[in-house]
C-alpha cells in the first residue's frame, strides 16, 4: 500500500480545504480586484499593499496573529463566541479562514491584472449598446477576464495545498480536521518514516509540476489566440 | 442663399473645465438638426470627440444640458447613464468585443435593442455594410475596414434614435478609407435617423454631411448648412488650398454618346461624367476652388466644357500666400469659389459685382 489510511485522510482533507478556499477566494476577490483595477482613490496603494502582504511575510507571523485575532481573547474570536460559534483555532473552519488570508494575493492579483487589461473600450461599447453595469460585468468583463480567473483558481488552489507554517500555527495537527498533507509529511519525517514521507512528497512534486505546466500552456495559448482571435 | 428651415432637435450645452484651472476644454451651446448628417469638424484637440462623448453620456464630469426632442438626458439635476440613452455609437477603433465573433457582436446588440424602434433590419444592415462573408470570424481576424463595418452594423442594430460616429475612418489607411466611404455614403442616405459624424477630414465631411459645426479649442467657430458654409469667404475652409463648394441639383439631361450627364441648379447647368445616376434624381457635386478659372468673355474655342456666367460677390487674399486670391462667385444664388493668382485678378481688374465667366475644369460627383 503506497499510502496509509492516515495519508489518504490527509490528502482528502487537503483537497477539501483547497477547493473550498479557492471557491470562496474567487468570490471575495472579484469585488476587491474590480475595485483595485478601477479606482483612482489614494487608498489603492495601501489596499494593494495589504492584499500583497502574505507574499512577503513569513507564514508563522501570519499564523501567529491570526491565532491571536481568532482566539477566544481575540477581537473576532470574542465576537464569534458571543454569536454562539465555537472557537476557530484548531478547527477546519479556522484553517479555511487562515488559508484565505494566506492565499488572497494569489487570487486577487491575476484577476486584477485581467480586469485592468480589458480597459475602457469594451465597457464603453457595451454601455452604448444598452448593457447595464451588471450586464456589462457578466457578459463582457467575466468572459474577457476568463484567463485571469483560470490563473487565479489554479494558483490559489496550489498555494493552499502547499501551505505549512500557517496551518501549524492555527490548525495544529488533528487528524481529519486540520492535518493536511504538508503536516503529515512533517510528522512522517519526525517519526523517521522516510518511505511514507517520500510517497507524499513525490505526490506533491508531481502535482506542482502538472499545475505549473498547465498554467504556462494556458498562458501561451492565450497569447496565440490573441493573434488568431479565438478564445483560449 | 439656399436656406430651407431645419428643425432643430438635439440641444447640447456643455461646459467642461480643465482640472484645477479655469480654462474650458469645451464650452458649447448647440442646436443640432434632427435629420441628415451633421459633421463636427475641427483639428485634433478641438473638443469634437469630447463633445460626442458628452452627448453619449460617456463623460461624467461635465456640466450642462443634453436634450433630444422632449427627453432630457442631462441637466443640472439629472444624468442619464449611457446605457439608458437611445443612441448608437461608432468608436474610432471599432471596439468590437474580442471574445465574440462578428455575428455574436451583432447578436449582443440585437438582444438589447429597442423593440419599439425600427431603424434597420438584420438582413438590410448585413447587405448595406457588405459583411456577410466575415460573420463567423473573430475581430482579430478581420481587417481594419471590416472591423469598422461590423461596428457600424452593431451600432445600427441597437435601433438608435441618434447615431454618433467618432472618426470611424481615422484609424484606416487611405486605400481602406476609399473602400469604406461608399458604405458610409449609402448609410447616410438610407438612415432615417440623425447622424452626428466627427471628423478632421474636410474631404469626408464634404462627401457625407448636410450640416456642419466647426470647433476650435472647445468653441464653436462656424456652423451652418454645408453648402452655405463652404461657399463663405473668410471661413476656415476658404483658407485651405483644397477649398471647395458643394452644388446640389437635379440631373436634367444625359447623353450616352458622350458619356456625360448634366446637372441643373439655380438656372445653370453643369456637365459631369455620367455614372449610375438617373434622370431627374438629386445629386451633389463638389467643385474645388483650384479648378475654377475666370475670364472676362466667353471663349467658345476653349476645351473646357463648363463655362458659367457668374457675378463676383467677394474677394479675399490668402493671408499665408499673398500671390493667391480667393474669389467668391454667385451662379444664380449658388456660391462657387475660385482660387486664382493675385496677378490675374489685377490684370483682369476684377471687381465686386462684375459679371465674368467661370471655367470649371473638373467636378466630382459626391452622391
Automatic annotation (TrEMBL), chain A:
It comes from Marinomonas profundimaris. Gene3D superfamilies: MetI-like. It is found in: Cell inner membrane; Cell membrane. Residues 11-215 form the ABC transmembrane type-1 domain. This is Molybdenum transport system permease. It is a multi-pass membrane protein. One of its GO terms (cellular component) is plasma membrane. Keywords: Cell inner membrane, Cell membrane, Membrane, Molybdenum, Transmembrane, Transmembrane helix, Transport. The keyword Hydrolase does not apply. Part of the binding-protein-dependent transport system for molybdenum; probably responsible for the translocation of the substrate across the membrane. Signal peptide: none annotated. GO terms for molecular function: molybdate ion transmembrane transporter activity. The chain crosses the membrane at residues 12-37, 49-70, 90-108, 200-218. Belongs to the binding-protein-dependent transport system permease family. CysTW subfamily.
From TrEMBL, chain B:
PROSITE patterns: ABC_TRANSPORTER_1, ABC_TRANSPORTER_2, MOP. Residues 1-242 form the ABC transporter domain. Residues 301-367 form the Mop domain. The keyword Transcription does not apply. It comes from the Bacteria. Gene3D superfamilies: 2.40.50.100, P-loop containing nucleotide triphosphate hydrolases. This is Molybdenum ABC transporter ATP-binding protein. Keywords: ATP-binding, Cell inner membrane, Cell membrane, Membrane, Molybdenum, Nucleotide-binding, Translocase, Transport. GO terms for cellular component: membrane. One of its GO terms (molecular function) is ATP hydrolysis activity.
